[in-house]
Amino acid sequence: MRLSQLKAGQRGKVKGFESSELELKLMEMGCIPGEIVIVEQIAPLGDPISIRISGYSLSLRKNEAHQILLED
C-alpha cells in the first residue's frame, strides 16, 4: 500500500520508498521506516496531502506520497 492511497484520518507504518531520489529528502523530514504516519487532511483536488509523522505536520505532493510504501 502507498501513502497516497490513505484517506483523511487513516494511518499506516512506513515500510520504505519506491524512489531513491526522494528517499534521503523524506528521511530527513522524519519519514523513516517504522514510523507511524497519519493523514490529517487532503486538499479538495487531492494535492497536497497533510500528514502527521514524528510529532509534527508535513505537507507532501501526491506524487511524493505515492512513493512512500506502507506495511500491509
Please describe what this structure looks like:
About 25% of the residues are buried. Strands 4-3-2-1-5 form a five-stranded antiparallel sheet. It is globular. It contains two helices and five strands. With about 70 residues, it is an alpha+beta fold. The chain starts with 10 loop residues before the first strand and ends with a strand.
What attributes characterize this protein structure?
2 helices; SH3 type barrels; single chain; iron; about 70 residues
Secondary structure elements and pairings:
Elements lengths: L10 E7 L2 H9 L7 E7 L6 E5 L2 E5 L1 H4 L2 E3 L2
Antiparallel strand pairs: 1-2, 1-5, 2-3, 3-4
**What assembly state would you assign to the polypeptide chains in this entry?**
single chain
Q: What global shape is seen? A: globular
In DSSP terms (H or I, runs of 4 or more residues), the helix count works out at: 2
Largest beta sheet, briefly? 5 strands, antiparallel
Order of helices and strands: EHEEEHE
Count the beta strands: 5
Mean pLDDT: 90
The CATH architecture term is: Roll
Strand content: 35-45%
CATH topology: SH3 type barrels
| CATH evolutionary superfamily | Ferrous iron transport protein A (FeoA)
Strand arrangement across the biggest beta sheet = 4-3-2-1-5
CATH class: Mainly Beta
Q: Which regions contain 5 or more consecutive residues with pLDDT less than 50?
A: none
What's the helical proportion of residues? 10-25%
Query: Could you say how many structural domains there are in total?
Result: 1
How many whole angstroms does the radius of gyration measure?
11 Å
